[in-house]
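Researcher: Quick one. two chains, 578 residues in total.
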Amino acid sequence: MEIWQQLRAMGEEFTPTSIQATHKLFAPLALTPAQAGAVVQRNLAYGADPRHRLDVFHGPLAAPRPVVVFVHGGGFVGGDKGGADAPFYNNVGAWAVRSGFVGVTMTYRLAPSAVWPAGATDVGAAVGWLQANIARFGGDATRIVLVGQSAGATHVAGYLAGHGGTSDARPEVMAAALLSGFYEPDAFHVDPMQETYFGSDRGRYPAQSTVLALAASTVPCLFTISEFDLPLFHAQLAAVFAARVAMRGRSPQLLYLHGHNHFSSSLQLGSAIDSLGPALVSLAQATQG
Amino acid sequence: MEIWQQLRAMGEEFTPTSIQATHKLFAPLALTPAQAGAVVQRNLAYGADPRHRLDVFHGPLAAPRPVVVFVHGGGFVGGDKGGADAPFYNNVGAWAVRSGFVGVTMTYRLAPSAVWPAGATDVGAAVGWLQANIARFGGDATRIVLVGQSAGATHVAGYLAGHGGTSDARPEVMAAALLSGFYEPDAFHVDPMQETYFGSDRGRYPAQSTVLALAASTVPCLFTISEFDLPLFHAQLAAVFAARVAMRGRSPQLLYLHGHNHFSSSLQLGSAIDSLGPALVSLAQATQG
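Model:
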C-alpha cells in the first residue's frame, strides 16, 4: 500500500517536513465528526489560560458513556487540538463517538512560558472539569480514559505520577494509553526540547521521571511504540518495561505499531487502516467491568 | 466470554493441572486438518533419534508457499507435536494451510538425556531437512519461518544464535516468532528445569544466553508475552527488550497477548478467537517482499 511505502521511505525523520508529510498522507483518510454523527462543542474553557480549552464530541444523549480524552503532542512547545476544519484531531473525537464513547480533545499550556509540571497540572485540571461537566454531554465521569501522544503522553504520565500537584490519591481515571511517550528526562542526552520543559538542572531529573510511578501504577496503561520512532523513544519505553517487570513481575501492556512513525500513530485513529483504535476500545471497554 | 474468565481464574498457575485445564478449554475450538483441507504427512524423520520427527501439512500443490515450522514447549523435558487424533498441535498445521502456508510441527530430543545445545542443533537439523525436502510438499525452502513456544522458543533462539553448531553464517530462515520464551539461563534464579537443560555450571550461562544474539539479529523476530505468564518470562523478555534497544536503537517486534496464559498462546492458533495468527501471517507474508 502506497501510504506504508511512503512512511517507510521517511523512516525516523523527525522534522517539520516529515510531520507535514505524515499529516498529508493521513488527511484524506481522516474520519470527520459529520461522518461519525458527532455533535461537537468547541473551545470549552477548563481553566483561565487561553490554552485551557477542550472540545467535546458526543452522539445522541443516552446511557452515560466512557470518556476518551486525547492529549496532543508537539515537543512541549507546540501542537494543538485543531479547529473545526482541521482533519486532526477531529478524527480522534469522531472515532470516539463512532466507538460508543464521548470524545474530548484538549490543549494545554506550552513551554517555555509554562514549564514542568504545567502539562501534568493541566491534564489534572481538565480531568477535574470533565468530572464536573461531562455528564451533560452524555459522558460518565467515573470512566475517563486518557490518551496522550509524545509530549501529551509525558503530561498524562505526569498526571498519573501525581506531578500535577494537589492529589496524591489514586488518579481519578480508569485507564490510560501512552503513544510514543517521553517518560523521563535523560541526563545522558542533550536535548533542547527536553530542557525547555524539564529545565537544565539534572539534579531534578530523577524526581521529574514518571518511570517508577508508571511501573507501580494500578491504573491500566497501554503503551505504544511506532516502528519508525526515533531510538530515544524506544529507550524511553525500555526504561518503563524494565521497571514494570522489576516492580510488578510483568510486562506493560504494549502495542507495537508496524509501519508507523512518531506522528502517524494518532493520525490513523478512525481511518480505514486504523491499527490503534481497536486496542483503545478494548482498554476503554475494560473500564466497564 | 467464559474461556477468558477461566483463564483469568487460573492466573499464572504453572502446573500439570493448569496445562491440562488450558488444553481442555481450547480443544473444542481447535481447527482440524480436515477443516483446513490439509493433507498431512506424519512422522517424517529428519535425523536418527526417535524424536527427530516432523509432520508436514499442505494443501493442493501450487506455487511454492512459505513454510511455518512450529517447535513445541515442554520445559526442555517434555512436550510433543501430537499425533493424528490430538487437537494440538494439529491446530497449528491446519492454521498454516488455511493461511496459505505449508505447516510443519516438529519434535526434538529432550533433557536430561539431550542437553544444551541439543535443542538448537535439532532445530538446525530440521531446517536442513526442510531445505532439501519441502519443495515436494509445495513449500518454498527459501521462506522458512520458525515459531517456538517456551522451551521451543529457547531452541529457535539457540538456532538463531548459532548455538546449534556448524553454521556461523546467517541462519537460513526468513523470520521467527518466539512465544513466551526463555532466552538465557538465570544465575539469580534456582530453577531445576533450567539446570536440566543448561547444566548447573553458571560460568557457562553467559555463553548459553541468546539475548545479545537476538538483539543483534537481522532475522525479523516477533516476541509474544502472555498476560498470565510467570514473572520469569516477563523478565526474560525485558532482557531482550533492553538489549535490542541498546544495540539497535529500537524495540523488538512485540505482541502482548491479553487474557492468555503461558500455554494458550499457541493452542489458540486457527481458532475463532485467535489473536496470534494474524501477526504470524504478517510476519510470514513480509518474507515475500
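The CA atoms of residues 109 and 167 of chain A lie 20 Å apart.
Researcher: Thanks, that's what I needed.
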